[in-house]
Structures are given as structure tokens and as C-alpha cells.
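quick one
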Amino acid sequence: MKFGGTSVADLDRIRHVCSLVKQQVERGDRVAVTVSAMAGETNKLVGWARELAPLHNQPEHDVVVATGEQITAGLLALALSASGTPARSWMGWQIPIRTNSTHGSARIETIDPTELNACFQEGLVAVVAGFQGVTHENRVSTLGRGGSDTSAVAIAAALRADRCDIYTDVDGVYTTDPRIVPRARRLERIAFEEMLEMASLGAKVLQTRSVEIGMLHRVPIRVLSTFEPDGEGTLVCDEEDIVEKKPVTGIAYSRDEAKITLHRIPDKPGVAAAIFGPLADAGVNVDMIVQNVAEDSSKTNLTFTVGRSELNRALEAIEKAAAAIGYRDLTHDTGVAKVSIIGIGMRTHPGVAQTMFRTFAEKGINIEVISTSEIKVSVLIAEEYVELAVRTLHSAFDLEGI
Ligand code: ADP
Ligand code: ASP
Ligand code: MG
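structure w/ aspartic acid:
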């Protein structure tokens, strides 16, 4: 069972979570619980660390930022024990949850289940602090924002659990973010692959890496509400277990985008490598790419997108390599956003992208960059149109609730 920030936002909510865990234990199940920090806590801690030292010493940033989860793990273990359900807390390093050394967005490498299994043998509920692990250098690491989902699924995989239940402030995965489309509909099931695309394209209901681990280790993931726990929620499952296959299952959006254009670069072999090599070396993730035909045949323009937080690093890397690339101008734009439609049904329904483009045309929304895969179409548009775009697509693809 995993409980997110809003689910443990204050002591009353922790008492409520305690009663849900207790019910599960009373049904005869062995339970490991993963908790997030109280809502707002991680932002506060990130703010403090940044204020004191904006750039330096990532390992110490993680020491600070990981503490939010320590508090809630301790509090929930206290509440459980006090109410007659013996429990103990676990920090990432105590288990240990081993990660690589990429502080701030570390990847879980291994989880040794020995200690947790011993904890179950003693009849204790294990309450694990989410979002954190320990590197091979024995430093505290954190898994990136939303990382408690990943802790929970990884622990479920390590324990060979029957299921990983993610309790949050919505009662499942919706066709799109219910905060911007009130008529969004809860999905009974979603395939791992679709959920992976939804998450990586911006739906923050699950951290992308958690879905990846669930898919790899075949852990069924259920998303359900802490506040209406009797609902069925959404099951993230194998594609074969899904009967209804509409062309589009869901819509995701991301405002965390920046667009970079290199004007009048030579149109010859090796230029793309001269651009994307230095970006990779600088650790910048490039997402969408489009190469335009320029006025004369020897020069071309190249546009690509990166995460907004990586923009400055990307520009620096390009400017350093200016001589090798040979561009006339370098421009960038942060007023852009990405809107994506996702669905395994796309494989067998032709014309899905066309419906998306026509919908945008009717609303006068200009498409700047397009990228596709077998089960998704993403477009880059001006940020001001995001909500309109998502709402219009939602009805164009017949996703509305009744
Ligand atoms: P937690 O703190 O429990 O981890 P999050 O805030 O990380 O919760 O994730 C839940 C939120 O994800 C919801 O409140 C909702 O606004 C947002 N969200 C975005 N896309 C979706 C979607 N497709 N389905 C459900 N929720 C979504
Ligand atoms: N507390 C962390 C965050 O706010 C991890 C999580 O909630 O999943 O990102
Ligand atoms: Mg979350």
C-alpha cells in the first residue's frame, strides 16, 4: 500500500491511513506500506536547500529533501502500533534500497528483501519511507519528484507481492487530468504500455519509473482513492487483459517544455551528430526533433525540445559547439507545451493523428512540432492553448464521462 502526500497531509489523515492499513492486516494480509512526505513538505525542503546553495552538493540536497518521508514513516508506525497493529519504520538505507549515484533522480538498482521478510515474520507491518535510497558510496539518495510511487512498486516487486495499491487523491487513472477536464472519466483498466506513455508524457498520477518496474516485474498496480477507498480504482495491467480498445485511451500534457531552433545550419552529413553529441555529453535529454527545409538547398533549420529546467544547459552546450555546428542564429522559446494522445487501439485504427490535427485546425491552434510512436501522437503548441487543446481532444475522441 502506498500513500501519497495529500493522504498523509496531517495527523487526522495519518489516523485515517492507519485505519486502512489496519483493515488490510485484519483481512489476514501481510502488508508493507510506503509513504510520501506530507503535502507541501518536499517543496519546502527543496526551497530551503536551493536557497542556501542553488547548485552545489547534490548529496546534501538529498539528505535534506529525503527527511519529509522519514517523518511520515515514523508517524504512521507510531499510529499503527498505538492502535494495536505492531509496526516499524524503515528508511531506504536500512533495508537497503540501493540506488545509483545520480542524486536527485537516482534509479533503484536492487532491494534486499531479507530484513523486510524478517519484519513480517515478527508480525510487524513494515512502513517504508518512500522517495529515498542509498548509493554504493553509502550516501542518501532521492528518486526524483513523485518517486514514492517507484519505491512502492519496487518494494512490491522485491517482496513478490500480489499487488501494489497506490492510494492517492483521485479514485483512479482518468482519461486525462481531472483537474483540467472535469468530465474526464475513470478508466477501469489501462495497459502498462499506455500508462508508461501517459506518465512520461506528463500525467503525474504515477511516476514513470514505477510503471516501468511494474511492467518489468509483472506487479499489478492498482490506483485508488484514500478518501473513497471502497471504489474499484484503476488496474494497470497487461494489454491482453483489456477488452475495450478505443483508438485513444487518454490524453496527457506537459508544460515542462522548451523549444530550441538552430537557423541555417549546413545540410550535410554529420551536422546532427555535431549538435546532439554535445547535448548528450551535457546530460541534456532531447525529446522532439524536426528538421525544416530552408529557402536554399544547402542550408536548413533544426528545431528540438528539451525540459525547461535543462534549457540553459542545452543552450550553453550548443554555444560551445558553435564552430563545429556552423549555425547562423540560435533561438529558444519557453512558452510552449506538449499535448499527447495515447492508446494501444491506435495500432489498429487508422486516421487517429488526422483527427487530432483537424481538431486543432478547427480551433486555430498551430502545431509547431509533431512526434509519434506506435501508440501515441504528441504535438508541441503554444502554452496558452493547452487547456483548450486537451478539452477539445477529449470530446473529439469520445472520452467524456456520462
Ligand atoms: P500523490 O501525492 O498521491 O502521489 P499526485 O499529486 O502525485 O498524488 O498525483 C495525483 C494527481 O495526478 C491527481 O490529483 C491529478 O490531478 C493528477 N493527474 C494528472 N493526470 C491524471 C490522470 N490521467 N488521471 C488521474 N490523475 C491525474
Ligand atoms: N515527496 C516526494 C515528492 O513530493 C515524493 C512523492 O511524493 O512521491 O516528490
Ligand atoms: Mg505522486
